[in-house]
TrEMBL record:
<feature type="compositionally biased region" description="Low complexity">
    <location>
        <begin position="712"/>
        <end position="729"/>
    </location>
</feature>
<keyword id="KW-0560">Oxidoreductase</keyword>
<feature type="compositionally biased region" description="Low complexity">
    <location>
        <begin position="890"/>
        <end position="900"/>
    </location>
</feature>
<protein>
    <recommendedName>
        <fullName>Vitamin B12-dependent ribonucleotide reductase</fullName>
        <ecNumber>1.17.4.1</ecNumber>
    </recommendedName>
</protein>
<feature type="domain" description="Ribonucleotide reductase class II vitamin B12-dependent N-terminal">
    <location>
        <begin position="45"/>
        <end position="136"/>
    </location>
</feature>
<dbReference type="Pfam" id="PF02867">
    <property type="entry name" value="Ribonuc_red_lgC"/>
</dbReference>
<dbReference type="InterPro" id="IPR050862">
    <property type="entry name" value="RdRp_reductase_class-2"/>
</dbReference>
<dbReference type="GO" id="GO:0071897">
    <property type="term" value="P:DNA biosynthetic process"/>
</dbReference>
<feature type="domain" description="TSCPD">
    <location>
        <begin position="737"/>
        <end position="839"/>
    </location>
</feature>
<dbReference type="GO" id="GO:0031419">
    <property type="term" value="F:cobalamin binding"/>
</dbReference>
<keyword id="KW-0170">Cobalt</keyword>
<dbReference type="GO" id="GO:0000166">
    <property type="term" value="F:nucleotide binding"/>
</dbReference>
<keyword id="KW-0846">Cobalamin</keyword>
<keyword id="KW-1015">Disulfide bond</keyword>
<dbReference type="InterPro" id="IPR000788">
    <property type="entry name" value="RNR_lg_C"/>
</dbReference>
<dbReference type="InterPro" id="IPR024434">
    <property type="entry name" value="TSCPD_dom"/>
</dbReference>
<feature type="region of interest" description="Disordered">
    <location>
        <begin position="710"/>
        <end position="737"/>
    </location>
</feature>
Length: 952
């Protein structure tokens, strides 16, 4: 793959008004070699079932994907994005067809609209875009994959903002427009603050209904369309300004409905999300947000009154205590997670087009914020693909990727269709784009940065600044090639002011390490170059970047983390291409440990600890100061709520729009804590914030993880004794007078010892003798007694596996390096003894579930990607250490440093973490396949089928 000089844009020079297209250089591709010829393709079968009902919900055989793509990515792309009727010849069956359908449409439109200087530049653009999609470097948002290149309308936008005026005609039109957007599978937001309050008069002399009453009709419409056309809830956002006279009723609306849900549930009604009785409850199809002004927040800070204003005259018609209203907002959010807050002053201070109108609302996930009746098409970069083998960030390639993606996104507006004429007109006039990223959490961990750390925030801010700076630089170059956006002339001074604000915020980043300093230096350069180019050409786009949830497309790119989120958990659930599923330890963890300077033996021991416990606490050899690198969204070391807020504040100054993210709080969180988070978010310059307190909502289906207390199911033949009956007495099975035994000498941390293990004839371990210390010493006596106790228990039927589970990872001195090539590090003598016994006497499958492998198995994993013996390998439990290994054939399967079988009841990472923690996380079940979902931005996404709870 060749790297050429920077992709450049030749702005119009010479004769006034003459435009020249872009010159595109190769960055990822090789001249004369098509990207498809550089990868290994394989055929797979995709079968998707609802695990609860056993019903097959999707089946397509023989689909074609690169061998490097996971089964999960294959399944989601096949089920979600391949077009054509199942079983017909017109049905897409290869990733090549999907990519070609989209990329060739973009390239054709780019040629037609003058984006490329020559046909060769168009060809290079086509190949570069194809290569990045093929290698999961980025992805367009879902509507692009759904619609582009098909006979359907070419809708490319996922985010819509509508508007409604204080007339019945406008209100009814709102219902219609919103319904058409829902019908197409997208969502929309709008601000209802223009509607008169229930405390104001109509021109006829009657009293106005107020916006809350009209919300009922819209909610019912959304619920009906959802029921008729999809299984998920409709995605919508309703916003009300804090100075609206009906704001208190708006704040309490969903909290009162939640009380109703509890009462009906206690009366025996089915109030789960999707239950037959939940439809009787109102306002469940929208996210609610209060738009708070700086004036209101200052009144909260100072403890002064605040005026609610008439919608018709703007006169103050009621005065309220600002702190009391702020408390009511926090109380309602504590009770039911709604409303969220949108900080109007910050939002409009960063508005590039204020002369054309204020920013009043957002899309349902709160990342897109711009003019009413507008839309935004999104694309997200996979940050981990830019991390080089030496753990440095590939700044040059990142810049080129941003330039190519922004170019493609802008081209799409030229041919795109829109659900309403006003949305189409506004979008074509302002050309709002939303480039963003995924895998930030994985990148930070891989580079040894804690998510909630100064170094982590400095790197995240630098990368985000480089992304948006490069996007606007390319936008300025596009303006020179094909002209600025139509609304630029009216808003030029405001647009330039916001560009200077971004550049000034970049100057305020304080870097801590070489990596973030390098990225920040590049960001400083591109902001300076871009602003100079923009002064000359203007800009092609009023908006360039947002941070979206990246739920479905994140799975398409095989990302560990979505959007700006940290890693969900250290232990994950993974489907295997050959069938079945495994528990895996995040691949990022070994890379992070090596980056932090740990020896390979220590890395293996830490990874095994994580596989067993799901966290790093007390991991052997791991320094406590490095714990923060492995903090996650959930688990024993979950990131604190303010840690999430601080990350949002670090990256917000470098995002044109906003950030889709919910700050999760434990069930024990107080209203005071929510108030503090809301207030600090305003102080830190965040544009929008939503909180969610665990178990605050009733109307959602939850898994039954509390009933699952062990990973290993009880044997099928085990029968529980009848109530009141005494348990059956165990029978001791003694070993024969002559039996086979094996003696192993060992050294742990400088201390020597011997293990003698006697076995039943062909029937497993039956006795254990351990010699430590001199004959007659206290240590020798204690170990003799311990050996007798273990031996007797083994003969009474206690499985060796139980002892291995209990005694491995026990920590006490002596501990440290051993002389055993299979167990390089031990936390204690007991830890070593039972690891050795497991290797000598337990079958591979059982050892794998415990994360215990021989050195040969670990070497095999490094060479072939799997620990398992391949066909023809004669390795058996009890094989003598050091025995020669048979020749191995490499198996092209991607695996994790530790992979273990999972019980049949587990179908997602969220369910796996529930099992490990012994408690259930508060998340809905996917209504498509029944799998427990996990957070993605301000919604939830299903790992099994890619469905979301409201975000595209």
């Amino acid at each position: 793959m060749s790297q050429t000089s920077e992709t450049t844009a030749k702005a119009g020079r010479g004769a006034r008004g003459r435009k020249r297209g872009l010159t595109v250089g190769r960055v990822f591709t090789t001249p004369g070699v098509h990207p498809y010829d550089e990868v290994t393709w394989e055929r797979r079968d995709v079968v998707q079932t609802n695990w609860k009902t056993g019903e097959t919900i999707f089946e397509q055989h023989g689909v074609e994907f690169p061998s490097t793509w996971s089964l999960n990515a294959t399944t989601i792309v096949t089920t979600k994005y391949f077009r054509g009727a199942l079983g017909s010849d017109r049905r897409e069956w290869s990733l090549r067809q999907l990519i070609d359908r989209v990329v060739l449409t973009y390239t054709k439109a780019g040629r037609e609209h003058g984006y490329f200087a020559t046909d060769e530049d168009a060809t290079v653009f086509e190949h570069e875009l194809t290569w990045m999609l093929l290698h999961q470097v980025f992805s367009f948002n879902s509507p692009v994959w759904f619609n582009v290149g098909t006979p359907s309308p070419q809708q490319v936008s996922a985010c819509f903002i509508l508007s409604v005026d204080d007339t019945m005609e406008s209100i009814l039109n709102w219902y219609r427009e919103e319904g058409m957007i829902f019908k197409g599978g997208s969502g929309a937001g709008l601000n209802l603050s223009r509607l008169r309050s229930s405390k104001e008069l109509l021109s006829s002399g009657g009293t106005a209904s107020g916006p809350i009453s009209f919300m009922r009709g819209a909610d019912a419409s959304a619920g009906t369309i959802k029921s008729g056309g999809a299984t998920r809830r409709a995605a919508k956002m309703v916003v009300l300004d804090v100075d609206h006279p009906d704001v208190e009723e708006f704040v309490e609306t969903k909290a009162r409905e939640e009380d109703k849900i509890r009462a009906l549930r206690d009366a025996g009604f089915d109030m789960d999300l999707g239950g037959r009785d939940i439809v009787s409850v109102q306002y469940q199809n929208a996210n609610n947000s209060v738009r708070v002004s700086d004036e209101f927040m200052t009144a909260v800070e100072d403890g002064t009154p605040f005026g609610l204003r008439s919608r018709t005259t703007n006169d103050v018609i009621e005065t309220v205590d600002a702190r009391e209203l702020f408390r009511k907002i926090a109380q309602a959010a504590w009770e039911c997670a709604d409303p969220g807050l949108q900080y109007d002053g910050t939002i409009n201070d960063w508005h590039t087009s204020p002369e054309s109108g204020r920013i009043n609302a957002s899309n349902p996930c709160s990342e897109y914020m711009h003019l009413d009746n507008s839309s935004c098409n999104l694309a997200s970069l996979n940050l981990l693909t830019f991390l080089k083998d030496d753990d440095t960030f590939d700044v040059e390639r990142f810049e080129k990727a941003v330039e190519l993606v922004i170019t493609a996104m802008d081209i799409s507006i030229c041919f795109a269709d829109f659900p309403t004429d006003p949305i189409g007109e506004t979008t074509r006039a302002f050309r709002q784009l939303g480039i963003g990223y995924a895998n930030l959490g994985a990148l930070l961990m891989a580079t040894g940065h804690g998510y909630d750390s100064e170094g982590g925030r400095a790197l995240a801010a630098s990368i985000t600044s480089l992304m948006t700076g490069t996007a606007y630089k390319r936008s300025a170059e596009l303006a020179g090639a094909v002209g600025p956006y139509d609304g630029y002339a009216l808003n030029s001074e405001a647009h330039k002011r916001v560009m200077r604000k971004h550049a000034a915020a970049n100057d305020d980043i304080r870097t801590l390490h070489t990596m973030d300093a390098t990225v920040h230096s590049a960001a400083t350069r591109v902001w300076a170059e871009g602003n100079r180019t923009g002064e000359r050409n203007g800009w092609r786009n009023a908006q360039a970047s947002v941070l979206a949830p990246t739920g479905t497309i994140g799975f398409m790119m095989d990302c560990d983390t979505t959007g700006v989120e940290p890693d969900f958990s250290l232990v994950k659930f993974k489907k295997l291409v050959g069938g079945g599923s495994m528990q895996i330890v995040n691949q990022t963890i070994p890379r992070a440990l090596r980056r932090l300077g740990y020896a390979e033996e220590t890395v293996e021991a830490i990874v095994e600890h994580i596989a067993e416990h799901g966290h790093v606490i007390d991991a052997p050899g791991l320094k406590t100061e490095h714990y923060e690198v492995f903090d996650c969204a959930m688990g024993e070391r979950a990131i604190s709520p303010m840690g999430h807020v601080r990350m949002m504040a670090a990256v917000q100054p470098f995002i044109s729009g906003a950030i889709s993210k919910t700050v999760n709080l434990p069930e024990t969180a107080t209203v005071d804590e929510i108030e503090e988070i809301h207030f600090q978010a305003w102080k830190m310059g965040i544009k929008a914030l939503a909180i969610y307190r665990d178990n605050c909502k009733v109307g959602q289906p939850l898994s039954d993880a509390k009933a699952k207390t062990t990973i290993q199911p009880a044997p099928a033949e085990q029968v529980e004794p009848a109530a009141g009956a005494a348990p059956a007495r165990a029978t001791r099975k003694r070993l024969p007078r002559q039996r086979t035994s094996m003696t192993t000498s060992f050294n742990v941390g400088g201390a020597d010892g011997y293990i003698t293990a006697g076995s039943y004839p062909g029937d497993g371990l039956g006795e254990l003798f351990v010699k430590l210390g001199k004959q007659g010493s206290t240590l020798a006596g204690v170990m003799d007694a311990f050996s007798i106790a273990v031996s007797v228990a083994l003969q009474y039927g206690v499985p060796l596996e139980t002892y291995v589970q209990k005694f491995t990872n026990m920590r006490f001195e002596p501990a440290g390096l051993t002389d055993d090539p299979d167990i390089r590090m031990a936390q204690s003598m007991v830890d070593y003894i039972f690891r050795r016994l497991a290797l000598d006497h337990l079958p591979f499958e059982t050892r794998a579930s415990l994360g215990i492998y021989t050195s040969a198995e670990r070497a095999r994993q490094l060479e072939t990607g799997v620990y398992e013996p391949v066909p023809g390998d004669q390795e058996t439990a009890g094989q003598e250490p050091g025995a020669p290994e048979p020749a191995l054939a490499p198996t092209p399967v991607t695996s994790s440093p530790v992979a273990a079988p999972v019980p049949a009841s587990v179908h997602s990472s969220a369910e796996l973490m529930d099992l490990k923690q012994g408690r259930e996380a508060d998340a809905p079940l996917c209504m498509n396949c029944g799998i427990k979902m996990r957070p993605a931005g301000s919604c939830h996404v299903c790992e099994g089928c890619g469905s979301t709870s409201g975000c595209s």
